[in-house]
């Protein structure tokens, strides 16, 4: 079996601290989001607009990327293209080495997590310091984010207090959140002041104006993109907005869906490096456009809806699976429902083929998605692709979970259900002998490992109905 | 960079080879509209709810009020922009006061002023291009005279908002001021002091940016 979500899940499910940390956080986030969208008519109109705005981006993606590049270049931003995360890392390293940079300060960026950039830079003698408080905490702990918006949501106060006491000089153990926050501010202030470059993500890149929009609450995004002399922004090739006018509805959807805030404390709109006469801001701004499988996904008209995502995380906050197993169980960068459709497409069904199965198809994610990504449909599609070889060039590793025994059973099932005589005969046999099939039989074994096995009735429904005097004609 | 050119060609070729789908229309969506006489109050109450401290004042009185507020907060220095109208007004007005915080001009590039900015000044004063009633946001439009970091590095940010510049929404503002034709180096919307909820979803202020935000609404 590819991937090992199934093997990791029990560990998470049996960890009461992790369960409690996630339960509390998810309940809070769901309540706050719901308070933002109480007016159903307004939510429906806004969401329809947001979905259309992002669907337009997807439908015009190659042209908009060219337009973005042209406008950024005209504004003085240097644009780079990377087909793979390895190429993106090499580009970042080359820019940093050309500038003689030894230390970079980072704003939050999920693309940099995809690239495992910190690790790569460290191997090449460049220190990368995370400045988002949550990212800073997990960097100290040597862990990966467990949520795309709130990276250290799996940790509670006492775990963080112990971590800070260990890593921050002069700070003893304290669970006071203000003291912990002040300690991080102090530790990171100096890193900001001495960093040679800042690295950030991008929430929306506006093709019309060549503007990079970045939302955040802490001010670390502003600092990373203003104080150091060099700014490198990283984005997936899908994170575009067509026009500046498209930004207000997207901004009205993103923070409200993500954290239940009407707006983030800061919304940065960066359109160029420091101009002559200006007294601050980076002298150089670079934008790295990362493909890493996205253009392959784009080849499929249905699957490309995945590329609408604005990374709000509402799908994971509302997911009954994610909220119980937490982000690390998924192992890949993007957890939860969006991860379950994105990861197998970017990485391939051959290595992440179990992810689309880690879902009950309850549709909670679909109901809250601010850009109406049909996540459940895509999960079903990918489940199918994982067992059938596919005509679509978009699906890497299609058919990798094919199992002849399962295929044979389904073929038999299909035959029975489309041939009345075979159905009648098959049902009769199963009603007499079905209960004699041992629990350890293949497929029954997997099915009954987490379920009670239903018992076959002694007679089929058709037989019972006929005994009651009804004739099926 | 040669690699990047190859990557660009390959990525665009793949995207362009994919089947085209219809471009959907943007369905009707109206951002909220407020009564003209409610607008400023709404702005003030929303930004106050986001932990800002709001004062209503007048075109002549605000510099003296600011000096008083800063003294009350124990803030002994203010970074200001000597080239702006507001900067000049505060400098002139404070020159006549018996007791006023020290004024520190942002008059040279950050490279020469880093220490002062990072550790050496208690507050920073900026004007605002507009303010937004819907979300309680300040619109900062930094310039050569009024740089970006003065609203970010000092522990307290003081923003002067002219009541007549308060608009309903960002959408209305962008359209009426034709932003798409004139985006500056940097625009930032500010909706409260710097904050985080990364530790157990408990709000804490001043994680990287200002701990306090003081808004002077000039009527």
From TrEMBL, chain A:
- Name the Pfam families on file: Fer4_8, LUD_dom, LutB_C
Q: Does the keyword Metal-binding apply?
A: yes
Task: List the SUPFAM superfamilies hit by this protein, alphabetically.
Answer: 4Fe-4S ferredoxins, NagB/RpiA/CoA transferase-like
Top-level lineage group: Bacteria
Q: Does the keyword section mention Transport?
A: yes
Checking NCBIfam families in the record gives: LutB/LldF family L-lactate oxidation iron-sulfur protein
Provide the protein name. L-lactate dehydrogenase complex protein LldF
Q: Which organism is it from?
A: Insolitispirillum peregrinum
UniProtKB/TrEMBL annotation, chain B:
Q: Which ranges carry the LUD domain?
A: 41-218
- Pfam assignment, any one: LUD_dom
* UniProt cross-references to PANTHER family, sorted A to Z: LACTATE UTILIZATION PROTEIN C
Name this polypeptide is given: L-lactate dehydrogenase complex protein LldG
């Amino acid at each position: 079996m590819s991937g090992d979500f199934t093997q990791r899940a029990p560990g998470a499910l049996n960890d009461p601290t992790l369960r409690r940390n996630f339960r509390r956080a998810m309940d809070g986030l769901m309540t706050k989001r719901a308070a933002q969208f109480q007016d159903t008519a307004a939510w429906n109109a806004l969401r329809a607009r947001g979905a259309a705005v992002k669907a337009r981006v997807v439908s015009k993606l190659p042209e908009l990327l060219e337009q973005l590049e042209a406008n950024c270049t005209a504004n003085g931003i240097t644009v780079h293209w990377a087909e793979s995360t390895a190429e993106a890392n090499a580009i970042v390293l080359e820019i940093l080495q050309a500038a003689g940079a030894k230390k970079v300060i980072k704003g939050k960026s999920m693309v940099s997590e995809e690239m495992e950039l910190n690790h790569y830079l460290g191997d090449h003698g460049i220190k990368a310091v995370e400045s988002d408080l949550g990212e800073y905490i997990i960097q100290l702990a040597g862990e990966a984010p467990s949520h795309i918006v709130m990276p250290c949501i799996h940790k509670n106060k006492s775990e963080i207090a112990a971590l800070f006491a260990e890593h921050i000089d002069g700070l003893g153990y304290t669970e006071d959140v203000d003291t912990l926050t002040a300690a991080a501010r102090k530790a990171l202030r100096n890193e900001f002041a001495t960093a040679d470059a800042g690295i950030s993500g991008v929430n929306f890149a506006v093709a019309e104006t060549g503007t990079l929009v970045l939302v955040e609450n802490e001010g670390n995004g502003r600092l990373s993109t203003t104080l150091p002399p060099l700014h490198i922004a990283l984005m997936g090739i899908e994170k575009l907005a067509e026009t500046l006018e498209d930004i207000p509805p997207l901004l009205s959807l993103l923070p409200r869906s993500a954290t239940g805030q009407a707006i983030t404390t800061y919304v940065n709109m960066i359109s160029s490096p420091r101009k002559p006469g200006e007294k601050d801001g980076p002298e150089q701004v670079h934008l790295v456009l990362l493909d890493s499988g996205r253009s392959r996904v784009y080849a499929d008209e249905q699957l490309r809806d995945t590329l609408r995502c604005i990374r709000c995380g509402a799908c994971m906050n509302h997911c009954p699976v994610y909220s119980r197993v937490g982000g690390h169980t998924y192992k890949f960068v993007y957890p939860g429902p969006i991860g379950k459709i994105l990861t197998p497409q970017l990485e391939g069904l051959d290595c992440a083929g179990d992810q689309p199965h880690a879902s009950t198809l309850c549709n909670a994610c679909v109901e809250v998605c601010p850009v109406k990504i049909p996540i459940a449909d895509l999960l079903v599609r990918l489940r199918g692709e994982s067992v059938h070889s596919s005509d679509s060039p978009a699906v890497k590793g299609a058919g990798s979970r094919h199992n002849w025994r399962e295929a044979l059973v389904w073929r038999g099932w299909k035959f029975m259900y489309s041939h009345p005589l075979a159905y009648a005969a098959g049902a009769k046999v199963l009603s007499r002998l079905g209960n004699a099939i041992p629990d350890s039989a293949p497929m029954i074994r997997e099915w009954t490992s987490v379920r009670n096995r239903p018992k076959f009735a002694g007679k089929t429904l058709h037989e019972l109905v006929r005994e009651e005097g009804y004739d099926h004609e | 960079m040669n690699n990047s050119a190859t990557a660009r060609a390959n990525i665009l070729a793949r995207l362009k080879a994919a089947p085209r789908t219809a471009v959907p229309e943007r369905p009707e969506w109206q951002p909220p509209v407020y009564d003209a006489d409610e607008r400023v109050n709404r702005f003030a109450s929303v930004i106050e709810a986001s932990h800002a401290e709001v004062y209503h004042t007048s075109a002549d009185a605000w510099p003296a009020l600011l000096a008083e507020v800063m003294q009350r907060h124990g803030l002994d220095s203010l970074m200001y922009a000597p080239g702006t109208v507001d900067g000049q007004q505060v400098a002139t007005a404070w020159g006549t006061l018996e007791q006023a915080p020290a004024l520190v001009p942002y008059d040279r590039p950050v490279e020469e002023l880093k220490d002062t900015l990072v550790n050496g000044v208690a507050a920073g004063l900026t004007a605002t291009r507009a303010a937004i009633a819907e979300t309680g946001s300040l619109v900062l439009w930094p310039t050569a005279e009024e740089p970006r970091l003065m609203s970010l590095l000092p522990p307290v940010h003081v923003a002067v908002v002219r009541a007549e510049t308060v608009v309903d929404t960002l959408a209305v503002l962008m359209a009426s001021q034709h932003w798409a034709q004139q985006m500056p180096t940097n625009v930032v919307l500010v909706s409260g002091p710097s904050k985080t909820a990364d530790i157990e979803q408990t709000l804490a202020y001043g994680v990287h940016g200002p701990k306090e935000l003081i808004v002077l609404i000039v009527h």
